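Forum > Structural Biology > Help requests

Title: Can anyone predict the 3D structure of 3-methyl-2-oxobutanoate hydroxymethyltransferase?

Hi all, first post here. I have the sequence for 3-methyl-2-oxobutanoate hydroxymethyltransferase but no way to get a structure on my laptop. I'd be grateful if someone could post the structure tokens.
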Amino acid sequence: MSVHKEVKRVTTHILQEMKNRGEKIAMLTAYDYSMAKVVDEGGVDIILVGDSASMVMAGHETTLPITLDQMIYHAASVIRGTTRALVIVDLPFGSYQGNSKEALNSAIRIMKESGAHGVKLEGGIEIAESIERIVAAGIPVMGHLGLTPQSIYKFGTYTVRAKEEAEAEKLKTDIKRIEAAGCFSVVLEKIPALLAKEVSESIQIPTIGIGAGQYCNGQVLVVNDMIGLTKGFTPRFLRQYLDLYNQINGAVQSYVKDVKAGGFPNEKEQY
Ligand code: KIV
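Reply #1:
Sure, ran it for you. Structure tokens for 3-methyl-2-oxobutanoate hydroxymethyltransferase below:
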């Protein structure tokens, strides 16, 4: 008899069934083994190894500096911590915009070297050919529209996107095009809730929102923001479930006090 518990890994097929029956999809980011383990056991359906690692893990101002090698390192650590969630990895800035062959090579490196289950790319019609090529190689692709942080220097700010008619129309065209190219799902970041509703209803594949309101088929947050580890980041869309920055800060202060006072370790804490 096998001693291994049977664990069912979430698949893109299961996510599609969830949309079809109206069940919401829960997604969070993770960047390392320990966080991935606790997030996976908490029951999320998808873990995103986001290029937000560039900001929350490495302290950069934007997502642009993180490299493909660094994403692979984070993704491999996350994979070792999960048994249930589908693990999707961001293709970082500069690893896919050149042409579809470059995009495919980067996606293949992520899949082979980290063991991840799929990749995410930012953009619409301009990357549709790359999506087609990656999907043709058997790699699941998640899209990302609305506020696409790799284009932050083009946008200039992190404010809500597609409020104007022209940008909303482009998003509606883009989402249809990347669905046709083979995306299994698409992240909608910081767009009006009613636009997210309209596009979620206009396509078959699930939409996952961040700052895109309640009508998306699922939600995603950056885990460090959601547990209150990112100090001073309080956008309207963020629900903070813990205040870990202050809790950890308090614990560190207590530890420092104990060490300085000679109160740690005590007799029971030594050999
Ligand atoms: O990099 C990231 O964490 C993301 C999410 C915000 C969707 O792309």
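The longest strand covers residues 141-146. The pocket of 3-methyl-2-oxobutanoic acid is lined by residues 29, 48, 50-52, 90, 187, 210, 220, 222 (CB under 6 Å).
Shout if anything looks off.
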